[in-house]
Write a structure and sequence with these properties.
The structure is a single chain. This protein has an eleven-stranded mixed β-sheet with strand order 1-2-3-7-4-8-13-16-19-18-17. β14 and β15 form a beta hairpin. It has 16 helices and 21 strands. The chain has three domains: 274 residues, Rossmann fold (3-Layer(aba) Sandwich), CATH 3.40.50; 117 residues, Rossmann fold, CATH 3.40.50; 76 residues, no CATH class. The protein is globular. α5 packs antiparallel against α6, α5 runs parallel beside α8 and α5 crosses α13. It is α/β, with parallel strands linked by helices.
Length: 519
Amino acid sequence: MVRRYSCISNEAAAEKKMERLMFSGFQFSASGIRFSSSEVVLISDGTIPTNLEKKFTFPGFVDSGPSVEELGHHAGYYSLPHSKAARMFYFFFESRNNKDDPVVIWLTGGPGSGSEIALFYENGPFQFSKDNNLSLVWNQYGWDAASNIIFVDQPIGSGFSYTTDDSDIRYDEDGISNDLYDFLQAFLKEHPQFTKNDFYITGESYAGHYIPAFASRVHQGNKANEGIHINLKVKTLTSPVPFTIGVCTLFFAGTGRVCRGVELGLREGFAIGNGNTNPEIQCKAYTDFALDNGLINKNEYEDLNKLIPPCQKAIEDCGTEGGDACRISRINCFKIFYRIMDIAGDINQYDIRKKCGGGLCYDYSKMITFLNMKTVREALGVGDLEFVFLNDTVYNAMMDDAMKNLEVGIPALLEDGIKLLVYAGEYDFNCNWLGNLRWVDAMQWSGQKEFNSSPATPYLVDSEEAGTLKSHGPLAFLKVKDAGHMVPMDQPKAALQMLRDWMQGKLVRTRGGHNVSSI
């Protein structure tokens, strides 16, 4: 195996520490570089995996239950036609219940983290056993119980995805969303039986940037009749109660009323979990969240609030000028987060109930060891490519993008009836629920007034409160109880039910409260 690492000196690491703490998803000091000609990773015989997909079974699976051989578990690469040499790696798990279930794509944040974090520790079909070995067991609450789910390693350079040409490095959401659109077109060409299924985009953390851009790119492609139509576009109204979208008010299920030439409905959409979407609003929420949760005192709060105006001004400049202005905005705004972390002590930024054990705050060593085992790489068809947990090249390339506002493209999607769920675990500090709720409340669209005035009601799973829900029309916000940054890891049962209810239109407020159901 050929290994390439980006080794950061102690001084450089100290300079980067403040940036790493915010929106990074996870911290890792040394990671594979797969871009420059001197750092290309080749498999041992001098070749590179190309366009392939194979059914696979993970070594070490020991649990009873559905036969893995009977299920459609796939892994592979697709080349990207608008790149020089990029190959995007993915896992695809067909629904363990019904192949007509929606297709869901999951995007992990970082930027530069592979999707395998979610696959093994959050909402994938498998989990590592509690024994001190690398065996796998079924995840009872894996999202493949309700969907045909794709986990993709992106941007290029993340996870097992790679390129041999440094022009394939992406620096903004336009490049990333185009790559994802090309990937999805290739996937549906390979799996035409799933083109009829409803389609949902999901993810967390820095995916709060990826997801709105990708949803907009899919919608744009559908409207322009590019390639294969993707069922993100809505069909018929499924809500039994009035709501307003654009200039129309719709009243009864199945009326088929048309508004602005688009047949409206509450199917297909995108969901953002504990995301970084509107940094200007979310950065301002750090001090309020910290005070409310006892991380700082009132005097510290007042001092820290003096840092907010220069942060907001710098973010505004980043949006208009880019480049150096974005770098200045990171410095100005990260000061707020970093100083709170210094005051709070050794807390886990992703779950303030916990201590942070080491640079990652969580132990992912099983995953890293497992994915770099020869038997696993052979099963996946990745040759001698080494799994990269967090790619510093990808991370650094996206830093000018980090402080940009991706909420700006969402209203147009809502107006066309594409639904959005924003959910957040209540104990995450990094991308906390308060900042997420504030940008959702501030978003200007035709249903803004009605959403803001809608009551927050308990969200129930098996008759127990699992969170607090606000919704109007295609927009829903869910604050998840007893969860941190990674909701499917902390509350797997509630997360699966949330997905089901959302895809079935049950997170829409009805006259009697919110529809809920049990697993």
